[in-house]
Inverse folding.
């Protein structure tokens, strides 16, 4: 059993629990099932399966949340992910209204991976919408 519910339960709680179980079910259960998500452009190298991030030839340590956020952006490179999508996938349904979490962690991520965090070239902002990973050209 992954979870259990005690009656009575509200509709929002039920939907949130089902989504959480489905989200966990999407995660690979064995090393062979992991998606092969990698990126390399000479400055930034990422191997999601190995949890490796190398910036300018130096290994960078990301916190588990920073890594989940970065991996999600990388997996959806070029596609804008809304604040709510990021919050739900990285933090869980409990945080879907807490935009500060995303902003703070994006700031930390930029400090670690961007050549110049004040002029990001990888983790881009779509004002009022969310963020996306932009591959170097």
């Amino acid at each position: 059993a992954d979870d259990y519910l005690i009656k009575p339960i509200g509709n929002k709680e039920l939907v949130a629990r089902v989504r959480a179980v489905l989200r966990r079910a999407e995660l690979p259960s064995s090393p062979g099932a992991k998606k092969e998500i990698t990126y390399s452009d000479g400055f930034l190298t990422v191997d999601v399966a190995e949890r490796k991030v190398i910036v300018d030839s130096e290994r960078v340590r990301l916190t588990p949340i920073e890594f989940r956020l970065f991996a999600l952006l990388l997996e959806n490179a070029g596609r804008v992910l809304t604040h709510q999508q990021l919050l739900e996938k990285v933090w869980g349904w409990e945080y879907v209204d807490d935009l500060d979490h995303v902003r703070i962690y994006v700031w930390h991520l930029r400090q670690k991976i961007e050549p110049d965090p004040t002029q990001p070239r990888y983790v881009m902002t779509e004002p009022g919408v969310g963020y996306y990973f932009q591959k170097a050209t």
Remarks:
- Residues 97 and 124 are 21 Å apart (CA to CA).
- Helices lie at 11-26, 64-75, 83-91, 99-113.
